Amino acid sequence: MSLPPLVEPAADLSVDEVRRYSRHLIIPDVGVAGQKRLKNARVLCVGAGGLGSPALMYLAAAGVGTLGIVEFDTVDESNLQRQIIHGQSDIGRPKAESARDSVLEINPYVNVVLHNEALTNDNVMEIFAQYDLIIDGTDNFATRYMVNDAAVLLGKPYVWGSIYRFDGQASVFWAEHGPCYRCLYPEPPPPGMVPSCAEGGVLGVLCASIGAIQVTEAIKLLTGVGETLLGRLMVYDALEMEYRKIKLRKDPNCAICGENPTVTGLIDYDDFCGAVSDEAQAATVGSTITAQELKDWQDSGKPIDLIDVREPAEWEIVRIPGARLVPKGEFLNGNALADLPQDRQIVLHCKSGVRSAEALAAVKAAGFKDAVHVQGGVVSWVKTVDPSLPIY
Ligand SMILES: [Zn+2]
């Protein structure tokens, strides 16, 4: 989609800048005006890893005036196979600082702003507000949904990319003019379904292919030239050496940019994406039953205290017969522990099995070693035991 330039031109270019950017300046569609827009632009890169490396280096070389870097990690030897903004001597250094040094070596006229911290609900709005455009180079679903929602809430465009083994995807999301990430992916994949690059690997040079698309789209958005990937998904297959474009539509039922949004502020993204804490993970080992096993226990007459740890609004939508509602927070603050029975089997459940795992950790820590939780929660119950119930 063709869009007006995101950024107004800077007042002027210095003689040194004219010399440096001459190959841009003689492209008619860029010219002095386009280069002045790049100089005035403020671009934030979320992550200085696989995608952030080529993105930051080419954005710097292109003359983007202000580059923000959000990154809390340090450089590890296993990063160097693809994260080319860092070098051997940077191992152990904060990635944000290493990336800044490389950017300034490429182009000393760039103003680099470091956000040497993890992006969280507490800082994402304030950080994003300082920039015209965001480049999403994150590698996990919780952060991706947070980036999307913050961008939608602030009305900012962003360029998204993702990589895995030989496959890459990229698009531009901007809810004011087209679809957002949730229009494409309304629900995160179940935890453990989609391996990360750390688990499944990634061809290093794939980062360059997708990172280059992201920078290209960024420059087009900033200067207002060409047709951007807004409303289109680029899918790259390195093995077949094939690029495909898929048309994307804005989803009228999108949870955040649709006609009746249910997401009107930032949410708990770890919970949404099913990230389980180490304690919760440990608590579920040997203490997990399926929805069908719960049904079998109920049918057999086994004495059970079935506790739904969701929130009241969710309880109103659908509930498992025989359950009582005690929201997860009551277990985490300890209030619910005194009311737990000693003479019955304690079974916890939630919607998907994430919150019940956290509650289970607290219950087992309080001495109820036989307590269990239901894998997949209400969703699994509806799918495997009673399909007549609604899933939300
Ligand atoms: Zn949307």
From TrEMBL:
Keywords: ATP-binding, Membrane, Multifunctional enzyme, Nucleotide-binding, Nucleotidyltransferase, Transferase, Transmembrane, Transmembrane helix
SUPFAM superfamilies: Activating enzymes of the ubiquitin-like proteins
A cellular component annotation (GO) from this entry: cytosol
Membrane topology note: Single-pass membrane protein
InterPro entries linked: Rhodanese-like_dom, Rhodanese-like_dom_sf, ThiF/MoeB/HesA, ThiF_NAD_FAD-bd, Ubiquitin-activating_enz
Subcellular location: Membrane
One Gene Ontology MF term: ubiquitin-like modifier activating enzyme activity
Domain Rhodanese, chain residue ranges per copy: 300-390
PROSITE patterns: RHODANESE_3
Primary residence: membrane
One Pfam family of this chain: ThiF
Similarity-based family: In the N-terminal section; belongs to the HesA/MoeB/ThiF family.
Name the record gives this protein: Probable adenylyltransferase/sulfurtransferase MoeZ
Organism expressing this protein natively: Dactylosporangium matsuzakiense
Native organism taxonomy: Bacteria, Bacillati, Actinomycetota, Actinomycetes, Micromonosporales
